[in-house]
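Box 3.1 A note on notation
Throughout this textbook, protein chains are presented in two layers. The first layer is the amino acid sequence; the second is a token string describing backbone geometry. Keep the layers aligned when reading.
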Amino acid sequence: MQTLTVDIASTFVDDASALLTGFGRALLRFAMGPIDRIANAYDIAGVLAERRATFRMWRANRGRARHEGRRIGLLGRLSPFRRLAHLT
């Protein structure tokens, strides 16, 4: 009986975390939309396309690291600078 209670509680926490993450991403996308449109308008050399490809490769490697057991904390997921990590 106790394990059922723990499972329900952990499921609730996981769902709440996913909901907050989704709201955070939606809010960030809404806030960064005008900046992204301006950046795309002024991207003459194609630097943004190269940056997006690098970010996709970095994200794929991060997903592999997650499967290996490493986790990214809540602050790392909600950080507005997380997309700049490939620059460091």
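The CA atoms of residues 18 and 38 lie 30 Å apart. The mean pLDDT is 79.
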